[in-house]
Amino acid sequence: MSLLTSDIPRKRRFRAGMVGGGRGAFFAGIHRAALRLANRFDLVAGAFSSDPQTCLEAGEALGISAQRNYLNFRDMASAEAARDDPIDVAIVVTPNHLHFEPCKLFLEAGIPVICDKPLVNSSDEARELQRLAEANDTFFAVTYTYTGYPMVRDARARIRAGEIGQIRFMYVEYLLEWLAGDSSKLGKGAVWRGDPSKAGPTGALGDVGTHAFNILEFLSGQRCTALSATLMQTVASFGLDDTDVVQMEFDGGANGLLWAALAAPGHRNGLRFKIVGTKATIEWQQEAPETLHVSRLGEADLIYRRGQRDLTAEAAISVSLPAGNPEAYLEALAVLYCDYATALEGGRNWREALSVPLADLNEGLRGVLLSEVSVRSSSLRSWVPFPVS
Amino acid sequence: MSLLTSDIPRKRRFRAGMVGGGRGAFFAGIHRAALRLANRFDLVAGAFSSDPQTCLEAGEALGISAQRNYLNFRDMASAEAARDDPIDVAIVVTPNHLHFEPCKLFLEAGIPVICDKPLVNSSDEARELQRLAEANDTFFAVTYTYTGYPMVRDARARIRAGEIGQIRFMYVEYLLEWLAGDSSKLGKGAVWRGDPSKAGPTGALGDVGTHAFNILEFLSGQRCTALSATLMQTVASFGLDDTDVVQMEFDGGANGLLWAALAAPGHRNGLRFKIVGTKATIEWQQEAPETLHVSRLGEADLIYRRGQRDLTAEAAISVSLPAGNPEAYLEALAVLYCDYATALEGGRNWREALSVPLADLNEGLRGVLLSEVSVRSSSLRSWVPFPVS
Amino acid sequence: MSLLTSDIPRKRRFRAGMVGGGRGAFFAGIHRAALRLANRFDLVAGAFSSDPQTCLEAGEALGISAQRNYLNFRDMASAEAARDDPIDVAIVVTPNHLHFEPCKLFLEAGIPVICDKPLVNSSDEARELQRLAEANDTFFAVTYTYTGYPMVRDARARIRAGEIGQIRFMYVEYLLEWLAGDSSKLGKGAVWRGDPSKAGPTGALGDVGTHAFNILEFLSGQRCTALSATLMQTVASFGLDDTDVVQMEFDGGANGLLWAALAAPGHRNGLRFKIVGTKATIEWQQEAPETLHVSRLGEADLIYRRGQRDLTAEAAISVSLPAGNPEAYLEALAVLYCDYATALEGGRNWREALSVPLADLNEGLRGVLLSEVSVRSSSLRSWVPFPVS
Amino acid sequence: MSLLTSDIPRKRRFRAGMVGGGRGAFFAGIHRAALRLANRFDLVAGAFSSDPQTCLEAGEALGISAQRNYLNFRDMASAEAARDDPIDVAIVVTPNHLHFEPCKLFLEAGIPVICDKPLVNSSDEARELQRLAEANDTFFAVTYTYTGYPMVRDARARIRAGEIGQIRFMYVEYLLEWLAGDSSKLGKGAVWRGDPSKAGPTGALGDVGTHAFNILEFLSGQRCTALSATLMQTVASFGLDDTDVVQMEFDGGANGLLWAALAAPGHRNGLRFKIVGTKATIEWQQEAPETLHVSRLGEADLIYRRGQRDLTAEAAISVSLPAGNPEAYLEALAVLYCDYATALEGGRNWREALSVPLADLNEGLRGVLLSEVSVRSSSLRSWVPFPVS
After folding, report:
1. Nearest C-alpha in D relative to B293
2. Is the minimum CB–CB distance between A190 and chain C shorter than 8 Å?
3. Is the pTM above the cut of 0.95?
4. From 3.30.420.40, 3.40.50.720, 3.40.50.300, 3.30.530.20, which CATH number describes the B14-145 domain?
5. Disulfide-capable partner of A70 in A47, C230, D217, D365 (CB 3.0 to 4.6 Å)?
6. Do C268 and D307 touch (CB under 8 A)?
7. What CATH number belongs to B150-323+356-380?
8. Are D92 and D113 in contact, with CB atoms under 8 Å apart?
9. Per residue in D223-269, pLDDT tens?
């Protein structure tokens, strides 16, 4: 689904509402930019802040009509549900601890939801959302952004096609530096991310480890069955783990290793993976997302590149620009929004609409379980089974 | 001007019309995606094709009202000029030989213009547009996309600040592979690009050499005063030069070298430069646009990165995402559209609105002169002065 | 100690003897090439094989006089000890299980020893060698080759000087592919490496993990105090672990992670480390050994390069060629041999002769302990203390 | 010819003498290190300096017997020619203007010669050496070091095998920084390199441009037939050109471009080439010599690596260490010395002994012609034919 071919001919458009995202809400601005790029959604409603003034300003700036510029998501859910032209989907971009309630209300109102990760802060909450969504086959997506990169999809397709043989070992690291700086200068986002009552049971693991874990399961099609985690806190002023190591066993026989950190200087958004197979190894890194590196036993390495003719079909359909005109982060998120539009076209059969798996409530639940199980493993200093979900 | 901060608070928006860009017009789709990202323009009018059916379909798909969905740019120019709410700017994305006439008509109607490069196919035409624009101080921009990349702006600012010392030598290469393939399978774009009556006097030089030349002048602030060009045709089926070498002398004392090619396998959009100064060398490549490489005499190399705190001010204002969440081609073009919006806010004083120089008709003219002078130099096999413009 | 400045003026030379290293003994050839490069040793004696014919051929080819071309290392130790001009040092390059006995005999004869890693196959043996060596202050070196690379030494010096702040976390990976191929085609070296009676208690850990472990202690100056290891066997035909993960705690407060594998396609000799400090992160990889990457919080990355003027003193003295004329593996090993010569010049005070720590019997013992402790940890699936040595 | 397999079984050894190379002669030390690595030559004679004391010291340090430690090369040539066991080859490593006379004397004495590049300072001298050598089929090699790199040989073999199709364009750059520093601190080597009476007619072109030119002819098997050169002097204190651009036409239909500079900060020994064919482009750079990058039309790039099983035969025979244990500059020069030994084994038929072309007097002459013809072209500012040689 190219971002460029979506304007002529005109594709079906969807009405979107946003929860969170007033002035200063950084990631909400990213979501709106991706929405504009994807060009399949019109933002027509919102509850942009818990602060009324921020709400009003945001809605006005974003061209939301006054009557759909809600002061809170509860009003929004009930009012939208009552309209003839309700929003087709609610986009939840609040801090972690404010995911559960709006998601629940929209699901109860039968309105599809797109929610930031980590889904919620406990597996009980996640399972409750699952029950609500399954009751009506309501569309629900969790924005694991990195699965929108064409070359991540290309990696997945190549692995499934056997290009690297059988998977032996999976390594993923996700390192950030933002927590390494002067702690007195950290912004609001840093503060709630270190507060267990808001961020959930883990710090680095919930913030970025979930992405890393999700990408291993996405790539391999294997599910984690047990893990051994070491959660470490190296930054005293932060209330949660900032450096984590998780070893994993997967149902397909692979073993895995995950390293996540929030205070690693020189790492801006350092997600990278290396999947070792019996025939080849496949590597990708988020900061150079246009290429996929396949290194083979005794032979020349291959550098696959987004937009070239030897891409797998799963990757090719997610490409917009030709190779050489680089795509990047916003385009990856826009690819997800294109997927969401395609899925929403399917109505109750939204699960059948896509050839690439969409991160749904089950993936969201697994991300929450990663935190819960890792906390237990780390305190026991031993391996713990990972629940079937 | 961040693409993300432009939605809250709401910035002034401009009405845009597009000439060219019906179904299949690839670069027009790119311009529209960048327009959506920039979020400062509403596309309200257009003459999208010389084919009426294509026109109608495109306008409808793009949500243009029927009365502003014109069948040709002549009607568009006169009708828009007569409206109370005319377009604030016309965006011309037709093939090269169809730039001059619409640009002229819009300028005559007092309507600002944004035009793809190369500006036109002769310096006489370019100078005529200059006269028209100067008469009314009408805004006119030529889309040298690569000057929108923050790290190109960072390079320029560092060079101006003396970080590399005095410039000794400037090297730029711009290599593409599209003409290297099976010539029977080339698309429409390839065909007109090899036809002198449409593409203008040169092939590789007009198509990509102009970008490369522009970027050297943009970076250095120096103007070419003489050149020695060798235009080569290595692809028999193409009607123009496909491989060019141009040596240049600049008014600031630097010498330069440009290599452009359209049939270089393995080069997707291979623009890269290396500016050698007395203290350091600065390098950048379009396919890895997030970093700037500064290598110093006897000391550690520096890798500057978009979004970090040690960026120059000129670069920093063009940044949207934090370092690590990569930006790329569409974002660079959107930066230009943000600049255009800022300039248009300035009305007749648009030239004073920006801290980074905007590619105007003079830059467009110089691109056309590059082709004309190089043809002469290549046929004489000698150096030829470059006109002052 | 430059390899190039050692010939004029002439430095003191040492008589060396070699145990192992007949035809087909690959690493012995590497040692001899490094000896020639270092230009401080004359190979005058040897017991090159357990096979008499191979012994004779090798000694003759290597220009060893017939009387010092011994048929076994026992004869060699006693005969050399009895000479007026005995060898100054014995170089032991036999398979792992044949390290202990020759080392013991030479130490008993008061002859210094240079031995390949892993030192021996049990900590009891290692401690017995320690006792023998300490009795006479006899020089004993274990060839941890990678500590000979100038940029590894540069990393160590920068870490000690506080350039990256306090160490938060240390990651090292060492991946090879040789075991991933057709197992029926594996050579002699592969066979004994998978045989516990010869290779010792571990496979990947003993073969390459010891290098990785040693380099972390070398870089940080911190000592491992506890570890949690997972030893995995993914290649059925190999009799030992081929894929290992070890988590570590260090006495200086750092945590560490080590991943070693012998069957990772596309990894030829993939040793790389990443040391995360509070101020910066430092990275190096063996296959691109000429540069050291220091990435800092929010600022430009630094790429240090061997041979430039901003190198640390510890690194600079180990450099031979100017930056740009690359050095590599043989030069790194030759740097170690230059160190050995310098140390041997010191006689009983050999420990004081060098500014960079030399891997001695204690480092050798720690490598053996790594295997022993990891086997225990892996079978218990829990953390185990690492003995003080 | 592996550097490692040359010791068992023992290969035939040759007696070498050296002209130049006393204390402080940097490149002579490099040659001696490469000689030790190659392990086929014994240095038994020398005239190491024009200064008697330096001569004596050097010879003594290098273990030369007093009677073969000559005070000048004239004595050396006559005395060696008169011996029963004369040197098999003379290695000339003096400054450029002192190449001709010793080469001439050794050739007249029937003694093979290995000479540094550039061969001599005029084509008349080069042709005189040619006549002398041809008279007796005497072996004569010019040390174009970079042709000893296995991956340069791999590139040549792949080009010959048609892997990149027909050559369209060849680009080579060779940039150094040494002249960019404080001119008052430049060493002896810098001073004579800027003195036309010693360095020859050009600066950057003679010093490094000859290497770059040679490598294009080596890779392509095509011969330059015409060139257009621009020789520039940007460093006032240097007496010759320091920045050069040369455009070339070749007899096989390819065009070429060469950029050489001595004052480009951040470039230590920056030789790199890019050969554009109709099917693929092949790239290599001296500072990362272990890989060859082949980028293909629309398909994954290939990264070939020294030591892997898919190497061409020409490259494979020049490999010593396995992939992953990197080789570098000294190994490349040692590969040339291995070639010289193989060639010398052939006696008068030395030209038939090698599968990779050896740079002989004709290549040396062409390097000298490059300077002479470029000076003419640059002063005429036009194209000039390149003589057939």
Report:
1. D266
2. no
3. yes
4. 3.40.50.720
5. A47
6. yes
7. 3.30.360.10
8. yes
9. 999 999 999 999 998 999 999 999 999 999 999 999 999 999 999 99
